[in-house]
Amino acid sequence: QVCAQLCRRPCYCPWVPPRCPRGSPLVLDGCGCCKICARRLGEPCDFLHVCDQSQGLVCDYSSASAGTGATCNFEDDEEGCEVNGRVYRDGEIFQPSCKIQCRCLDGGFNCIPLCQEDVRLPTPDCPYPRRVEIPGKCCPEWICEAQDQHLLRDARAVSPLPRFPCQEWGTEWSACSATCGVGFATRVSNQNRYCRLETQRRLCMVRPCPALPAAFPA
Questions:
Q1: What would the pLDDT profile of 80-93 be if each residue is shown by its tens digit?
Q2: 22 and 67 both lie in a single domain
Q3: Alpha carbons 214 and 156: distance in angstroms, whole number
Q4: Please, what is the end-to-end C-alpha distance for the chain in angstroms?
Q5: Residue 206's pLDDT band (boundaries 50, 70, 90)?
Q6: In whole angstroms, what separates CA 86 from the centre of its chain?
Q7: How many CB atoms neighbour CB 83 within 10 A?
Q8: SS3 147
Q9: 162 domain residue, yes or no
Q10: Which of 23, 75, 118, 160 is 20 to 30 A distant from 206 in Cα terms?
Q11: Residue 95 backbone phi and psi in degrees, to 5
């Protein structure tokens, strides 16, 4: 009956299909007539405007009686997370790039870097170490630079480098590494002038450490 009331035959569809936002594929509407953008997690839906079934979403009418309307939700009510327009299931592991691996967990996600975050200090045989991007490789590598190249690079660094346009992406700051006193929190972000994913650190302090009791004399 719903199909007979809402679906017209023959189908009348626009010549040009709609341009969908990132993460929303083109699918047939509920009548099976026209191409529409599939609704994503949390977006309103109805008989005609269907949800993205490839992400395991269905039109949830459980909240429709409260006057809020139906919304797209997971069929089995599992919690998921949405990253850059794509929905991941709880427990699913994904890689936004070759440098980072993330896992969807309880509606959020935790990420770990896949590249080693080692620090190379200057040594007599390598007084000017520098980490560079190698074509064809994901993770940067250390090289030893000659003194004249080091001075030339510093001279070029005097002029400000242009900021490359990129979509900002980053994880939340982690919990402080120390339960008391000064510790550090980390996150992975591309909010730098090179738009590259990197692990960033900042100092943090949850609370001051209690004072140690004075030692009793022997």
A1: 677 776 778 777 88
A2: yes
A3: 56
A4: 92
A5: confident
A6: 10
A7: 16
A8: helix
A9: no
A10: 118
A11: -125, 105
What amino acid occupies position 106?
Answer: D
How are beta strands 100-105 and 93-97 bridged, if at all?
antiparallel
Which DSSP string do the residues of 12-27 spell out, in sequence order?
---SSPPPPPTT--EE
**Cis ω on the peptide bond leading into residue 127 (within 30° of 0)?**
no
Q: 121, 129, 117, 87: which is closest to 197 by C-alpha?
A: 117
- For 23: left if phi > 0, alpha if psi spans -120 to 50, otherwise beta; the answer is left
Residue listed under structure tokens 């939340």: 172
Structure tokens at 75: 């069929």
Nearest to 97 by CA among 11, 195, 175, 31: 195
Give residue 193's Cα distance to chain centre: 18
Beta-strand pair 57-60/182-189: unpaired
Counting the structural domains of the chain, the total is: 3
Digit-coded pLDDT (tens) for 19-60: 998 888 999 999 998 999 999 988 899 989 999 988 888 888
Look up tokens 């993330």; give the residue: 102
For residue 39, the domain's CATH number is: 4.10.40
